[in-house]
Amino acid sequence: MVQRIEGDFYNSEENKKHLQALCDGENLAKDTYIELECRNWVSKSNTLTFDFGKNKGILEADELSIFDQPKSGRYLVNKFIGVHIKDKQINDNNTVTYVFTRKKVQELYYNTEVKKFKPLDIIEGRIGSLNESSAFVDIGYGVIAVIKVSNASVVHMSDLRSFFTIGERVKMIVKHGVDAENPFLIVSHKELLGTWEDNVSQFDVWNATVGKVVRIEDYGIFVMLTPNLVGLAECVDVPIKINDVVSVSIRNIASDTSKIKLLINTTVPIRHDNSVIKKNYIIPPAIEDGVWYYNKNSNSEVRRIVTDFNV
User: Fold this and answer.
1) Range with the lowest mean pLDDT among 17-21, 33-37, 74-78?
2) How far is 291 from 307, CA to CA, in rounded Å?
3) Which end of the chain has a smaller Cβ tally under 10 Å, C or N?
4) Residues 114-123, buried b or exposed e (16+ Cβ, 10 A)?
5) Which domains does the chain have, with CATH numbers?
6) Nearest CA to 75 among 20, 152, 144?
7) pTM for this structure?
8) What are the phi and psi torsion angles at 275 (to 5°)?
9) Taking every pair of C-alpha atoms in the chain, what is the biggest distance, in angstroms?
10) What's the rounded Cα separation, in Å, for the pair 65 and 169?
C-alpha cells in the first residue's frame, strides 16, 4: 500500500475526478481512496458531514480511526482526511448520501505496512499536532507515531513547540515496532541529526553564528547552534528569554568533553523564529550492534549520549 500523508493527495487530478464523481452521484469502488476536507461537524450526532452539490457524505464517530483518538470529529475540522466508501444510500428525492470510513483505510495501512516496520528503519511523516513534551506525526493515512521530547534532539528542551512546527516534514528512525502489547510505533529523531563530530565540524573557534536560547541557568545560557548541538555562554546583563535567537561567537571547542563555550555578541535578541535552526538530516552509516553514539570519543562518561536499539 502506497504511503500517503493525509492532504498530499487532495489536489491531485485523480482525487479531483473522485470528488466530481461524488457530486454526480456515481458509483465508485469501495476501496477507492478519496481525500476530503473536513468543514462541518454536527455535535448532536458526532458526525462529520460533506457537501457534494446536491449530494452529501457522512463520517460517523466510530469510523474515524482504529485508535481511541480522536473520539470526536470536531478535532478533524479544517483538516484533510483519507477515506473509503462504506455505503451509498439513494434518498427519496433522488439524491445520494455516501457513508465513509477512515477506519478501514487505517486498518489496511497498519496491517500491511506499519506492522512491518522494525528497529533502525527510517520513515517519514508530517507533524500533525504538538504539545510541550510530544510531537504527533502522521506517518500515513492519519496513523500516528509519537516523538517524545527526549528523542527529538540531544539538546535538552523544555518545549517541543519551539523545535517543531505543525505541518513540518520530518524523518524518524524506528526504535520499536508494533506488537500486541505496543500498538503504537516508537520512533526517535535525534539520531538522524548527526553526531557531535558531524555538527561541530561546521564551526571553528571565533566563528560568529546565530543560535536559539533553549535553557537559562544561574551559571550560564545554553544556546542551540544546530538541532543537535548546544553551547554554553556566560550570563549577560540584558533581558534574554528562552527561544530568543541571538548572535554568538565560538570561544572554545572541547571535543574530549563535548563542550562548546560561547560569547553572546548581541545585546538585544534578533528574533523569535523556529526556522533559524534548520534541520539537515544525516542518515547514519550502519549502526554497529544496534547502538548509536552521539559522542563516542568523549572522555566524560556522564556526557556520553547513546541510543540502544536492542532495548
Assistant:
1) 74-78
2) 6
3) C
4) beebebeeeb
5) 13-108 (2.40.50.140), 201-276 (2.40.50.140)
6) 144
7) 0.87
8) -75, -10
9) 79
10) 22
User: Locate cell 458531514: which residue?
Assistant: 49
Please write down the long-range contacts of 148-151, taking CB distance under 8 Å and 24 or more positions apart: 151/175, 151/187, 151/188, 151/189, 151/190
**Residue 213 φ then ψ, to 5°:** -70, 120
Extract the C-alpha cell encoding 294. Answer: 552521539
Q: Which three cell numbers stand for residue 190?
A: 535525534
How is residue 102 written as a grid cell? 477512515
Q: Read off the C-alpha cell for 298.
A: 568523549
Do 267 and 238 form a contact (C-beta atoms < 8 A)? yes
Q: DSSP for the chain? A: -----TTSSTTSHHHHHHHHHHHTT----TT--EEEE--EEETTTTEEEEEETTEEEEEEGGGS-SSS---SGGGGTTSEEEEEEEEEEE-TTS-EEEEEESHHHHHHHHHHTGGG--TT-EEEEEEEEE-SSEEEEEEETTEEEEEEHHHH-SS--S-GGGT--TT-EEEEEEEE---SS--SPEEE-GGGS--HHHHHTT--TT-EEEEEEEEEETTEEEEEEETTEEEEE---SS---TT-EEEEEEEEEETTTTEEEEEE--SS--B--GGGS----------GGGEEESSTT-S-TTT--EEETT-
169-176 vs 122-130, strand pairing mode: antiparallel
Q: Is the confidence at residue 299, as pLDDT, over 80?
A: no
Q: What is the pLDDT of residues 212-270, one digit of tens each?
A: 999 999 999 999 999 999 999 998 888 888 888 899 999 999 988 899 999 998 755 55
